[in-house]
Specification:
single chain; alpha+beta; 49% helix
Amino acid sequence: DVDDALLVKQKKQSALNAALHTTSSDGGTLGVHIVYAIDKSQSMGVRGFKRLALPACLEIHNSLSPDSAHAVMFGETVTHTQVKSSQYFSKNGLASKTKLEPGTALMEGFEKAVELVVNTHSRAQEDADRSLRE
């Protein structure tokens, strides 16, 4: 449906604009590291979750080919996992089996996402610094 396609395109553009491309202290690149923050609350509805959110993440992942990625899902609970490939977001992937939950732990979800971004950046910076010393 046209509205769904437009919404997916808008979400993709927003995520691409917000993608984290980190640089090291010496100005070199640390690569592309993504943390997806995905609403798994019942207010998303199965259609919104499986036909909009997950396909948008799949397309972003395929477009950016990140060096690392994590998915933080928030509903009543907050869960996170390392995303090893775009298959995670596919129609039959692990994310599609997520049960929608009542409630939206939005702040806890974003806190976990920020924690993962900071930790990933710190590890990448340490690795870059180590390789410069070697």
